[in-house]
Amino acid sequence: MRASRVVASVLTGAALVLGVAASPASAADGWQATADADDSTFGQHPYECDDFAGGEACFQPYGEWFWVRDLSADNLPVAMVWSYSDDFGSRQGVAFDTLGKARGWTHLNKSFEEYGSLFWQVCSVTSVAKKQINWNSCSDGQSSIT
Fold first, then answer.
1. pLDDT tens per residue, the chain (146 residues)?
2. Burial letters 16-33, b for 16+ CB under 10 A, else e
3. What is the C-alpha to C-alpha distance for residues 49 and 52, in angstroms, rounded to an integer?
4. Which partner for 107 in 23, 37, 53, 126 could form a disulfide, CB atoms 3.0-4.6 Å apart?
5. This prediction's pTM
6. Comparing C-alpha atoms, which of 90, 94, 111, 97 is closest to residue 31?
7. What's CA 139's distance to the chain center, in Å?
């Protein structure tokens, strides 16, 4: 009888851990389109940026905003490919801009635990529908502590 209680406790604990791991924040990761932004709001807080010939991406730690801007009128979307990790696990995703060079800055708000590590690169996208990044186009990347 005691062994069945131990097994039940272990299974309950595992279910709680899985429930935490499948949090709404992680469920919202993956490929996400950035939204149109007013260019005048860019630069109101410190940013860390990275770029390549076709685009630019910045991370704003205050508020945890991703900013993406297409710099080339080649009709290829630009993306901020990111990965985040902390003591509790890791997450990754792609924030992509399909609005084009003429639109200017686009943004996406994320939410991360404090004191995690974020790494990102800005790349061109071959196909949003097929979720294909042109890895040869990517910048060297940037790291930040949230």
1. 444 443 333 333 333 233 333 344 555 799 999 999 877 777 666 688 888 889 999 998 888 999 999 999 898 999 999 999 999 999 999 999 999 999 899 999 999 998 899 999 999 999 999 999 999 999 999 888 88
2. eeeeeeeeeebeebeebb
3. 11
4. 37
5. 0.77
6. 94
7. 15
